[in-house]
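OP here, attaching both records as promised.
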Amino acid sequence: MTENEFVDVGELRNTVRRIETAIGKRVIGSEKIVRFMFIALLSNNHVLLEGVPGLAKTMLASEFSRNLCMDFKRIQFTPDMLPSDVTGTMVFNLEAKKIEFRRGPIFANVLLADEINRTPAKVQSALLEGMEEKKVSVGGEDYNLPEPFLVIATQNPIEQEGTFPLAEALMDRFLFRYILTYPSREEELGILKSLSLPEEELQNDIDSNRILSLRKEVSNIYASDEIIAYIVDIIRTTRTNDLILVGASPRTTAKYLMAAKANAMLNGREYVIPEDVRFLAHELLNHRIILRPEALLENGGDAMSTVNRVIDRVISQVATPK
């Protein structure tokens, strides 16, 4: 591939690592999560974080947007919400004597959709339109969302009373589902020590305009025919594995390739290697496959560990390109 005149991938790698380290000082153990958020942002996708309360999901999203100098908003979803609480509504301006559109919290660069499964399907659908179309429809008019636009949604996998499970169509709009776990003892000690750290001055190496230009360059990252075939074969194997009832869709194949290219760019390369593909596999596939009941029975009913084992089996069944 010829030298990219717009992106110095080595400089980008160093910048991203610096941001990952900076966020990691305030949100201990977050470096890998931040990498997936970067990949989603550069490939024009979204992230779903799943974990019990108290794992610093809000702080993580806030620090990510702060370090990228992007506008951040948070929505705490509840069962009594209306779509207009997300998108905005039409109001009458007494001074101007006309009806105007008052923008909702979805008009941000980074939107934290907190406990997304606690709101009814109509509200989820309003969010889905914004995620997919990058616009909202209110009062018969379309309003474009800011660019770039990234949704970081959260849900609690333990407490299910009074929740509205996400439809498969909405789940598929998230590039990754990242499962957060409790920190290790060393990480928890680091969390307490980090509470007294002052906020570091930001180095504005990446902002909204830079992200938009980087997005255009992701498609220029080289993926050989062997890498493309590797991704296609992984996705097709999810449809033939005897433990999987429903495999990943062709849309997943396209998202997978763009995510692998974004990961290659963030690693300072202008080409995709098999490690880029394998690095993304679990978080990209764990919400896109539906297991057969016997798969859970064989593994003691632990759904997440079973999904990970099945994904490992799928990857092992596909020959790795040389």
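Record two, same layout:
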Amino acid sequence: MSKTVRVSTPSRICLFGEHQDYLGLEVIASAINLRFYAQAVERDDSLIKIKIRDERLNYLGAKNSEGLYEERTIDLSKPIVYTCKRDYLKSSVNVLLKNGYKIEHGYDIIMDSEIPIGKGMCSSTTMIIVLIKLLLECIGSGDKDDPEKIALLGFNAEVAEFNEPGGMMDHYTSAFGGLVHLKFNERTEIIRIDRTLPGSFILFDSLERKNTLKVLSDAKMPVLAALEDLKENGITSVKDFYFDESKMKYLEKLDETKRVKLSANIDNYRILKEAERMIKGNHFNPEHFGSLIKAHHANLRDALNISTPAIESILETAYKNGALGGKVNGSGGGGCAYVYAYDEDCNRILKAVRELGYPGKVLKQDVGVKVDID
């Protein structure tokens, strides 16, 4: 009998740098203990038969107690043809094959998850990362223990393969795990931060689905257009304004929409750099850390317009019950938000927000993609 291979990978929260990775800027993010699981058993034919958690189980805390799965089949003996725009299971296999990995026979695969679907918690990214890790383990590839390689393969399968506007934060944070500082230049620089933050994060589900691609496009395109408009003034990046404040005068050349969105990104980059100094330094202050998260969210809400009344109600209720800061998580326009709090305040915050009708869960930092041992 063939042995069963089991792997899992974590979801993430973006602490600082939301909506900035695709601008070539920086992100500080943490992997969290909500995970996507996958297991495989070898078949004696060319079929990869996948049973994946039913998409209707899409809210935080949903249990798959009835074993509800959707079924997909990929035939390795035939060319892989995408039958929908975001055909990520097929694209994950296809990207592996395009990159020379030899998948010489089929597998029976079961995929399940604790991660809410379509809520800004990188459910699609983690699905891809966990499937790529699983297949690399099954074929005994030397890249199976290389989180950077797995992250890049995942990015290609999700973003590059379909010409979508997403960034690399989700792929790298999930693959590497822990607390990471990511710098997106010509080559992504991954800086592991050897620190476990005090207190806890509490994730809340607004129960609102979101249009990720539209939100990303509406937030990204005006900023890129603004930077293009200011090229003649020597502006090539949001960083230019941070390192030379005299260049802020050029913002007046932009129309209101571009000016507001670019200004918010400049301020959020400043907030990230301030948070970086504190997180990596010797004097971590939870109240100040929370206030920086809160300020980051204010820019996302007021300039990028990615919050919703439900998310604002969640955050305000959490603040009244002791939360130190909070923000929308992921692309926004619905989905999840989180707050940061002292451990002793978590139960009170959870109870108050749950009374509004929104599910929540206390989160901790977690490790990256890995093999699970029985």
